[in-house]
Structure formats: C-alpha cells, structure tokens
Amino acid sequence: MALDLAKIRHQFPALQSGAVFLDNPGGTQAVKNCVDRVLEHLIEFNANHNGAFKTSRESDAILHKSRTAMAEFLNARRPAEIIFGQNMTTLTFHLGRSLARLLHPGDEIVVTRLDHDANVSPWLLIAEDRGCTVRWVDFHPADGTLDQESFRAALSGKPKIVAFGYASNALGTINPVAEMTKMAHDAGALVFIDAVHFAPHGPIDVVDIGCDFLVCSAYKFFGPHLGILYGRHDLLDGLFAYKVRPASNDLPGKFETGTQNHEAISGLLGTLEYFEWIGQHYAGDAPPELAKNYQGRTLRFKKAMTAIRAYERNLSRAMVKALRDMPGITIYGLTDETRFAERVPTYAFRLKDIPPRRIAELLDEHGIYVWDGHYYALEVTRRLGVEESGGMVRAGAVHYNTLEEVERFGKALHKITHP
C-alpha cells in the first residue's frame, strides 16, 4: 500500500505555506500530533516531576508513555534504556564524560571523517583530557562511502570506544552499522552510534544492530527539539553519573540532569503516534520478516518506517534526475540508482563557480529552502577540499516531500544557471 501524500501532508501545518522544505537534514517540520501534545501538556498538566498532586502525576504519566513509545520505536529492551536530554550533542558530551572515567592514558578511541562533529569533538576532547590516542577512519571521496579497510585498520589497536554514524548528514551515505558494530565488539570496544540523520528515513533496531549506545534528535524526525539517548541497561546502570546529590541513582533519572523539557517529551509522544498512524493505515500488510520479529506497536513503527524508506527511494531517483544533467554540477556521494539502499535522499553539490550560499539565497527567492556550508560535518568538507570555498549546497527530502516539489527544485536550479 502506497503512502497517501495528500493525507500525510495535511498532518504538517507548515506545509500549507507553499514553500518547498528541502532543509530537512537541519530539522524537519513538526507534525500536528506533536504540536497538539505540546499544547496539551502546557495547558492541562504543566507541573514538575514526582509531586503528590494531580497535575504532577499526570505529567509523569505522559512522560512515561513517551519514554515507553520511544523504546518501542528503537526496539529497546526496556523504557529505562531511553534517556532524554537537550539535544544529541549535549547528551553525547554528558555520557562521554562518564565513559571517560573508564579510559586510561594510551587507550584508543576511533572516530570517522564522515561524521557530524557532535560525534567527533566530544571524543577528541576526551582523548585530550585522558591522554588517549585517536584513530581516524577515512571515507571514499568518489562515492562518499566509509572506507571499511580504514575501519578495520583502526580496530587493530583494540580501541576502548568506537564512534560512527548511521547515515552521513552531509552526503546521505548509510553505513553498515550492524557489521561495523560486530567488528568493533570483536576488537573489545564499546560502540556509540549517531543515528540523528537516519532516524526520519528508516527503521532502527538497537537490539539487531547490537550497539551499546545510540543517539538521535526528535526535531530531525518531525518532533520537538529534544535529544534521545539509548544505552544498554547494564552499561548505563554501571556508569558513574555526573548529577546533583539528591537525584536518584536509578535509571533513567541518574542521567537526566535537572528538570527536563516536559512539553517536548510530551510532543515526542505525538510524533510517535503519527508514525503509528502511518503503520496502521498506509503501510499495508507486514512483510514476513517484520511480522516474524515484531509485534504490537513496535511492528506498526517498523511497518511505517519501512514504507517511508520505500517511498523515499522514488524521491532519491527524482533528486538525482533533477541534479545529474545540470551543466557544471558536482554531486558528492552515491548517485548509482542500484545502490540507493546505501543512502538516504540527502544530496550535497556544488554548481559551477557559484558560491553555495548564493545558490541557497537564490533558491529561497523561489520558495525553496536548502542548506549551505559544512552543516557541522567539518571533516567531510575538509576531505572534499571545499571547506575554504563555502562548503556545499545540501538538499534533503523526507517522506512529506513530493515528486512535484523535487521537479520544482530542479527547474529553479536550471533558472539559476540560465538566467
């Protein structure tokens, strides 16, 4: 069963503006369920945690529902494995501080040049503080895929922590995270995965991947500004937590410092309810492999994200078609349609000698929103040799985008090159 784009787009109030949102890699538009849940929380049970009165009890109940739903979305084993925080970057720094206590001078940490800097700088700073050695994993500039030989070589030193992304926020490349996790575990390392960019594009199963930690951000998958950390219960339970003294030592509270953004956590529940709605009504019957491995709401989530992934393959084809034949264009990353299983519909490019910022400004005049620069994937733009000249233009589609919008994007680019 195909996604009903008319009904799906009706769930996003911002889309009624007529703008073409291809700035999604920097943050997607919020679904109406999310907005409604935020308002409901602020109006009906806006109270702090663990009070003896009604609004506090109601607030705690809705936050527990959200945590439980997020655990099912990632297929975590229990809700206590879900930690909420300000954003992915803050959560990574926070958890990294605890992990640093396990490290000693001379220990090795592995990072990649394909990652967002939020999964690089925290580990570089920890290495500096603890006297550790950093091993870098390179990527192939020709197609934007991670160099697996470089990854294997980086594991030879038996690192203590290996950090890599699920998908590149700059080039759209999807990494083989399950295989990489196994290799890292075989080398004796803990695995930390940045899934921020992949989360809106396909199903995530932390048990199947086997990772130790995984982070994502709700505002990248149609929700509020909120960071989410998954961690294996035994690891989180055993780690020292930097917290105030009266705070509980139990999970998840020991890692959720201070008062959380309760209305955003409530909004996350609305976002997850939207995915469940897609899984119920627009994903058809579950493929045998999904029906065998999942049930209940988790199955509905997996059906929804699998249907979204399938639809986005069409968007990828349209994006490549819109870009490939543009005179003077350089596209960074995979463009081979037979390999679209290895990417999400995020495309970075440069056009003639026009500065990326200027292209973004001109597209804005056509009501089309894209990003320019390095988008915090600093090592990517450095490796490609474009950092000093303004980085790249980045256009990223998600499932609420239409083929007609991609065509409009292509026509606008053509006008820019043929004024």
General description of the model:
This protein is α/β, with parallel strands linked by helices. It has 2 domains: 5-29 and 312-417, Alpha-Beta Complex (Aspartate Aminotransferase, domain 1), CATH 3.90.1150.10; 34-273, Aspartate Aminotransferase, domain 2. It is built from 15 helices and 13 strands. Helix 7 links the parallel strand 5 and strand 6 (190-194). The longest helix has 29 residues, at 296-324.
List keywords for this structure.
single chain; alpha/beta; 4-stranded antiparallel β-sheet; globular; Aspartate Aminotransferase, domain 2; 42% helix; 7-stranded mixed β-sheet; 15 helices; Aspartate Aminotransferase, domain 1; 419 residues; 2 domains
